[in-house]
Amino acid sequence: MQNKNRWLTSDAPCEPVSFLARRALDSRLHTVLRLFPLVTAETAEQPKQIHQLRVATRRAVAALDLFEPLVGRRKHRNLRRKLRRVRKETGAAREIDVLTEHVQSSGALTDAERDAVGKSLTTFRQESRRSIAELSRRLPERKLRRRIESVRQGVRWRGEGKEPAADEYSVLALTPLVEMFLSEVDHVSLSFQGLHRFRVQGKKLRYAIELLAGEWPRKLRSHFYSRLEELQNRLGDINDLASAETRCLTWATAFSSEAAAWEKLATWYRQAGQAALAEFAVWWSTERIAEFKNNWQLIQQKQSG
């Protein structure tokens, strides 16, 4: 489902791009600041908030990258590094949350195996939460807030020549991302590694559309974005299965008393991943690829008209 709050539009197409950049960064970085203390509190237990924070950091990094010429190289690099650190530190907790859901629903284990694995996952989850709480001591909220405030207040055009209008900048920044994505759609490697790379590229485009496609015709934008979002959801499911299989195999080696259960679970993930790959190969048809390309052509025609 699309959330209308994702979309950022210019107050006027001819407004300076610095106005658009400031609103984009305010929106994305405010979400990070709202979620960060909720997740890093020692009593935090909400898997949903961890996932939301990880998504928020991705969207914030996308905004920083898109508006780097207005942020400045050093500030961009420093804040980007801290946001990526937040996402990395919360990664294990997110994987364990997904794994816990799957253990309860997979049917791959006996009741005794599920109980044993469940206890281990509870321990792993507690350890991952302690690591997240530790993050707040190594990266205090006030320090993150200062970094973000410095970026927000320092937004100005640093590029060559006159500051472009928001609509002009959006076309210049977004068009190459769309065309790079479309250049890959006919050559997608149907392997876990190949699909992961394609997923990362599609995610970068998706977050850019949210910030820069405000002047696209609304119906065409909604159609292109919804298809891209569906693609991302499918690729995300495949990536989760591959990551979970790897983690289960690691734990099978590390914990001999539960090795058989972890290996059974890894086999379940491998089979589920292979089935998801086969399903994606059917879904990612020449017709669907053509739909992306045709939709982009219509958007360009409307913009040039």
Q: How big is the Rg?
A: 21 Å
| Element-level helix/strand string | HHHHHHHHHHHH
CATH fold assignment of the largest domain: CHAD domain
Largest sheet: none
How large is the share of residues in beta strands?
under 5%
The fourth-level CATH homologous superfamily of the largest domain is: CHAD domain
- The low-confidence parts are none
Average pLDDT score: 89
Structural class: mainly alpha
Q: Compute the number of helices.
A: 12
Any idea how many domains? 2
Counting DSSP E segments of at least 2 residues, the number of strands comes to 0
| Span of the ends, CA to CA | 30 Å
| Share in helix | over 70%
| Name of the CATH first level of the largest domain | Mainly Alpha
Q: How does CATH name the architecture of the largest domain?
A: Alpha solenoid
Shape: flat
Explain what the structure shows:
This protein is mainly α and 305 residues long. It folds into 2 domains: 150 residues, Alpha solenoid (CHAD domain); 141 residues, Alpha solenoid (CHAD domain). It is 79% helix and 0% strand. The longest helix is centred in the last third of the chain and has 37 residues. The protein is flat. The chain starts with 16 loop residues before the first helix and ends with a helix. The mean pLDDT is 89.
